[in-house]
Amino acid sequence: MRVLITGGSGFVGQRLCQRLTEAGHRVQVVSRDPESARGRLPDTVDIRRSALDFVDAPPDVLVNLAGEPIAAKRWSHDQKEKLIDSRLNATRELVGLCEQLQQTDTRVPRVMVSGSAMGYYGDQGDREVTEKTPPHDEFAHRLCRRWEEAALEAEAFGVRVALLRTGLVLDQGGGSLAKMLPPFRLGLGGRFGSGRQYMPWIHREDLVRAILFLIERDELEGAFNGSAPHPVTNAEFTRALAGQLKRPAIFPVPAIVLQTAFGEMARLLLTGADMRPARLLEAGFEFRFETLEEALADILA
């Protein structure tokens, strides 16, 4: 099959491209910087600047992973607009491709797996969160809601849409661990604030497998929580990571320090959701890394 990916040169996208290529599929990637992307992707990947450039090579599947990193900068008004626009523009391009293909009587993609995030739920305290849990209204929720609404517009063209609300993605070479490991290796790690906030997480391999699972299962649509079955609190995450590295974790970061440094963005570090992958489990998806200890042992081996 032919798979078109936005965000294909990112942390998750690179591994997805690798797995699809190894399985013999034809991979297409949208990148604003094709030359840079070529250095990170298999040689056979077809890289173009816009999803609309693939009208002459219509994909069977769309995977939407594009978006400005949400925790890269303080949330100024302009940065919030960038976070929203980067997601909406990439998603609307994919929907526009579906519309153009339909107008020319060309086969439209059969499915779009579109990224979202645990931020959809906002701060949920310590209650268990499934795909049915009402969200808490805050910026992260509104961002994810608009992103999902844009993706669902593809349904008007006969495209099945699956929304994947991911937790923290863990693996070597990037993602959440890239920033955590240096201080923890030096024994300078510690919890954020009280440490009671939940941190849903998922091994990158399981996230890529979940994307492929949603592509293959024609009956699966709507929202799915992309996180391991056993989320942990920030304090538990801190202890597990320090334990794997055989280092102490005795330097907590007070909430006021994070709030002063990051402003509203500090909510990503100080609040969370006990998010469970109820619908993936009900559909029969099997995680290779169910517990944080298993995941960290594999990643840090």
UniProtKB/TrEMBL annotation:
Belongs to the NAD(P)-dependent epimerase/dehydratase family. SDR39U1 subfamily. Residues 3-218 form the NAD-dependent epimerase/dehydratase domain. Gene3D superfamilies: NAD(P)-binding Rossmann-like Domain. NCBIfam families: yfcH. InterPro entries: DUF1731 (IPR013549), Epimerase_deHydtase (IPR001509), NAD(P)-bd_dom_sf (IPR036291), SDR39U1 (IPR010099). Coiled coil: none annotated. CDD domains: SDR_a8. It holds the Pfam family Epimerase. This is TIGR01777 family protein. Residues 253-299 form the DUF1731 domain.
